[in-house]
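User: Sorry, what's this?
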Amino acid sequence: MQKILVIDDDMDICNLLDRFLSKHGYAVKTAYNPSTAFGLIKNTTFDLVLSDFRLGHSDGREILKAVKEKDPTSQVIIITGYSDVKIAVDVIKMGAYDYITKPLLPDEILMLVEKALNKTDDVRSGKESISGVTTPAKGLSGAANIDPDYITGISPQAKEIDRQIMLVAPTPYSVIIYGESGTGKESIAHAIHMNSSRRTKPFIAVDCGALTKELAGSELFGHEKGAFTGALTQKIGHFESANGGTIFLDEVANLPYDTQVALLRVIQERKVRRLGGLKEIEIDVRILVASNERLSDGKKFREDLYHRFNEFSINLYPLRERGKDVEMFANHFLKKACIELGKQINSFSPEVIAVFQKYRWPGNLRELNNVVKRVALLTSGDEVRLNSLPHEISFGEKFSFDGPAHLANEESPNKLKSVALNAEYEKILEILKQVNYNKSKAAKMLDIDRKTLYNKLKQYKIM
């Protein structure tokens, strides 16, 4: 019988889950407090642990750490009674399988428990790695399993990237990863983490472009209850969550200047202080950063912070410069799409591969993945043919020929609204091409913020 541990300071919930899960054939133990829970975890290997996040003087993070130290193959599901489940999501990034919110629904619990236990079985049988990868990464000789979306190509550029990953991964160096949007910077960072001595510790990825000036410090360093208006509870920051592991700061050039100053201090002293707090917390975190623009020009990014990060750098090649890797990645994405759709599509026609090879792929791997998903949905036979390709791909252009006039809902192209929409559409295209589709630079040249630009791109179905 598979063993499950239920941890909750609410005795009624423990008893309820005990009866429900036992009825479905599982061997269940319960703990109402952290000390009992840690004792059971120390002396017994559980297949699954269901733990409330709030446990008096302890929390779900400590439970997760204890479970994984005992047996990394055991799965942990976090139970939270809070409408804001961001903390629970942070714990998932640290290695928890999933979270579930109160009130607990029997069907939802059973489905999640079965999925988690299936993963435990797969990991222990060798079908899946602890990191969740179903197949070893190709090309990284002797490397640990990494991101399921990460495969290496056969081009000289791909082999060089592999060599650099294996060279820098075992070191404590900070790394700057340069590359266009969609080239897989986060997958490279994860590969570095999984091939380092920190592989069993958290890997926390942060999109710095999504951090506002007001919340950046709180997200990265945490805050105490009452630190500012709206700070109703204590928050653990990303750096503290990543302690012992790796933090990946994507699009780091977008960090507000004040946050860059605070980050420099954290790097120098290896300590964080939550907003509104007095206590300094020691941290041991490896920092990997990524950017689609050079950090050394000193315009947006502090020079002293750049030199702290620049112990090693990796430059990712855009997909259009990787030759036959395009076909390899397309086949990889096709297999994934077929699994998702329940289809059997064996290959792309030679004509489709030829179009893929000629196309510029300004959105790189992300764009290729989305295109393959679309053509897999449209393909009815066992081979992807030209008639399934989007027009912008077939004709070698990035953007639709139809333009945005349909948005105005007007019959005549002379109507003022249609004219205005088309003018805006053309200007956005022009600027994007000037900056080689760098959206940060495009937003700056257009004198709008990134969020507004993204909304325009979505509105006009550009990229």
The longest helix spans residues 106-125. The first strand starts at residue 3 and ends at 7.
